[in-house]
Write a structure and sequence with these properties.
Largest sheet: 5 strands, parallel
Strand order of the largest sheet: 2-1-4-7-8
Number of strands: 8
Distance between the termini: 15 Å
Structural class: alpha/beta
CATH topology: Rossmann fold
Strand content: 15-25%
Number of domains: 1
Oligomer: single chain
CATH class: Alpha Beta
Helix content: 25-40%
Radius of gyration: 17 Å
Number of helices: 7
Shape: globular
């Protein structure tokens, strides 16, 4: 699964370089993307990318300092960023240590300056067991955002479907209006505990308020979305 994601990233990076464009990649948090980042940092993979031509962004972040164990930036930095020759000025982290509203406004303005009305080359996403993606959780205001590219989103104290580490209720997240401008969206999902939810999201009735990830649809802007699943998340056993 992660090798397929890596192949797609390498191929798109090469195409952007041939076309004379910078390659823009949005990173996500979680254990599955971490495995992808570690793979891309291996010599056999990182040597296939001209990192001087890459810009890295983040799809969401917890409102914690960048050295916190809960920081998406820290995870990505340790797994990949610090291990590849990308210029420091081409890594755009969300400043989770500041005021959430101000940090979201600042990041959104930066995205407007960099992308205008367009979106990135590749957006990496995952899916939580409750059907959320990025930090767009069911029942939170950010799910229905229609204007801003990035917002601050507070996860309620009584939100019981996920384990929220102490002090990380506030999140900064890209929103569906921006996510769906992506040229390519890769949704990485692993583990048999996700199988029922994957089947419901892809094959069940549309219920985007309860299952926010169903709002991922870049097709109106000419983009594509691909789910990359391991056998567990796909509901298959080892023989299948």
């Amino acid at each position: 699964m992660v090798e397929e994601a890596a192949r797609r990233i390498v191929a798109t990076a090469a195409k952007c370089e041939r076309d004379g464009d910078l390659f823009s990649l949005f990173l996500s948090g979680g254990s599955t993307p971490k495995a992808l980042y570690e793979l891309l940092a291996e010599d056999a993979w990182k040597s296939q990318i001209d990192w001087r031509n890459v810009e890295l962004y983040f799809g969401d972040e917890r409102c914690v300092p960048p050295d916190s164990l809960d920081s998406n930036y820290r995870m990505a930095n340790e797994a990949m960023i610090s291990r590849v020759p990308i210029p420091v000025g081409q890594v755009y982290r969300m400043k989770g240590e500041g005021d959430p509203e101000e940090a979201a406004k600042s990041y959104g303005q930066m995205l407007k300056e960099h992308f205008g009305d367009e979106g990135p080359d590749i957006m990496l996403l995952g899916m939580g067991g409750d059907g959320h993606t990025a930090s767009l959780f069911p029942g939170t205001p950010a799910v229905s955002e229609t204007q801003h590219r990035v917002v601050a989103n507070r996860i309620p104290d009584d939100y019981s479907l996920i384990a929220i580490p102490k002090g990380t209720h506030w999140r900064i997240t890209t929103t569906f209006p921006f996510i769906n401008r992506s040229r390519e969206i890769l949704i990485l999902c692993a583990g048999k505990d996700k199988a029922a939810r994957v089947a419901e999201v892809l094959g069940g009735p549309s219920d985007p308020a309860r299952l926010p990830i169903q709002q991922v649809d870049p097709s109106p802007a000419g983009g594509t979305v691909t789910w990359l699943l391991d056998s567990g998340a796909a509901g298959m056993d080892s023989t299948e």
